[in-house]
Write a structure and sequence with these properties.
The structure is a single chain. The chain is mainly α. Helix content is 50%, strand content 4%. The chain contains six helices and two strands, in the order E-H-E-H-H-H-H-H. A two-stranded parallel sheet has the order 1-2. Helix 1 runs parallel beside helix 2 and helix 4 packs across helix 5. It is elongated.
């Protein structure tokens, strides 16, 4: 496995184009056991150079991604905290608030979970509320 993180942060220009040509052309010559994982914003030149590789794309704005986030929020956050004690309408609002806060990014949702689990087990003997979800600090993500 090779990991290229934040490819879009490589400044546009000759260096980025050369790197994309090497990756786009060179990977096709490697054995099938070699995998490449790239994280990047979907900039046009990057997409164009990597298209020949038939990439599997995970787009944070795809509906499947939102469904996965909702499933995680329902099972791992609401289902494993005192948020499960909320009335159904408030649980639904909490789930939507969590998915919106994550903005398509699983790591952000994981940070939300860690924060809420800490609050839930914080020793103040109170159940989590919808307000706890809505007022999570933005700085934690």
């Amino acid at each position: 496995y090779f990991l290229v993180n934040a490819l879009d942060e490589l400044r546009p220009g000759a260096g980025r184009a050369q790197f994309l040509r090497i990756v786009g052309g060179g990977l096709l010559k490697l054995p099938p056991q070699v995998y490449l994982l790239i994280t990047s914003r979907p900039e046009a030149d990057i997409r164009a150079h990597l298209r020949a590789l038939s990439p599997f794309v995970v787009d944070k704005y795809e509906e499947l991604q939102r469904l996965d986030l909702r499933a995680f929020a329902e099972r791992r956050i609401i289902g494993e905290t005192s948020l499960q004690l909320l009335p159904a309408d408030e649980r639904a609002k909490a789930m939507e608030a969590l998915v919106a806060r994550a903005d398509g990014v699983f790591l952000a949702l994981r940070f939300c979970r860690e924060h809420l689990v800490r609050l839930d087990g914080g020793g103040d003997a109170r159940a989590l509320t919808l307000q706890d979800v809505e007022e999570m600090p933005a700085s934690m993500i």
